[in-house]
Every structure is written in C-alpha cells, then in structure tokens.
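Protein entry
_____________
===
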Amino acid sequence: MDSPRPLAPCLISNGTIAHARDMLRALETLENVEYRYIVTGELIEEGRAALVKLMADPHSATLIVNGCLFLNVESFRYLDFEQAAEEQWRFVLHGDDSLLELVSLPDTETEDTSSKRPHLLSEETIQDFETLIVLDDEDDED
C-alpha cells in the first residue's frame, strides 16, 4: 500500500509557523495591539498600534507610524503564537536578530465601526496567492 499524502500541520492554541500564508491567517485575527520591538536583545520601541494593513510583499517594509501598523510577513522568518491571557493572544515575529512582539488588546470598537476596518481579502476567492497580494494593493489606489 502506498503511503498517504503528506498532511499539513495542525496547530491549536500555540505553535510556530514559517509559511507566509499561515502567518497572514494567524495575524489577520488582530486589530489593536501592544507591541515591543527588540533588536539583539535590546528593547528599541514599545507602544500601541492598530493593524491597518497586512501583506506578504518582498518589496515593502513593516511600519509602525502614527499608531498604525503596516505589517509585512516577508519582514520576518517565522512566527510564534500562544494565548497570553483569557482574551489576549501573543504573537512573536522573528527576523534576523530582531523580534516584533504583538499582544492583542480587547476589542473596544462598536459593531457599526468594526465593519469599516480593513481586512485581508479571503484567499478562498482567489486561486493564486500572489494575485491576492496584487488585488489587496489595488484597493489602496481607490
């Protein structure tokens, strides 16, 4: 009997992921975060930000500016995630000698304003992952 097809990983409540698509899926659950940016073990910056753009683009930077987080998973090698508290999740993005730690903050938006929050396009509606990134960028031109 031939061996069955290889199975994709199944991670529940915590784990480490390195594939950009999986990192996007995990991070699109975030809205508002507390962040800490650490380089070679030294805290460089910490604060709060709202996730306004999530992407996988080898030509764009991850930026935190004016309380807004533009997060590019291509800026990092892998991601660790775990539940930090009852309503909080902790994500640690690992770069070369750097860490970006994100801890989710409880949702304070009302239901009416939450529908206006930008979201990553659903991958299920687009066959090609690179097309997903291109279509997301086209939304910026409007």
